[in-house]
Each structure stands twice: as structure tokens, then as C-alpha cells.
Design goal:
Length: 74
């Protein structure tokens, strides 16, 4: 196997240890900043957790998006 080619990104291969239909949670820095601004306005009442997800594409959808952006199907 050509490990150097795979590791350098020249092969245009995506590796993952989960299936193509697994959902990825993607978040935009803009959404993070918006939530931080909202939370800073609230009084502090101890530790809180707020999850943020801008999009929830599957691994296959992410691969298609990357292929389209790179003008080379993955």
C-alpha cells in the first residue's frame, strides 16, 4: 500500500471508522459566537452545557460536498 500517497492527501481518500450513513454534527464559528453572546447576557447559575449543531450531514453527504468543492468526486 502506498502510505506516503495516502498520508499526503494526494490519493483523495477519506478514512473513517464508522459508516457512510453516520451523521456528523457540524458547527459554524458564527453559530458558536452567537450562542456565546446569548449566554454572556444571562446570569451565571453554575455549570451549564449547551450543544450547538449547524448542520447534520451524513458522512456520504460530507464526501459529496468535499468532492464538489474540490471539483473532484471523492
Amino acid at each position: 500500500m502506498d502510505w506516503a500517497g495516502l498520508l499526503s492527501g494526494k490519493r483523495r481518500v477519506i478514512f473513517a471508522n464508522y459508516g457512510g450513513d453516520t451523521v456528523n454534527l457540524l458547527v459554524s464559528p458564527i453559530d458558536i459566537a452567537s450562542v456565546i453572546a446569548e449566554e454572556m447576557e444571562k446570569p451565571f447559575e453554575g455549570r451549564t452545557v449547551r450543544y450547538i449543531a449547524s448542520e447534520e450531514p451524513t458522512c456520504k453527504e460530507v464526501a459529496r460536498m468535499l468532492g464538489r468543492l474540490l471539483a473532484n468526486p471523492i
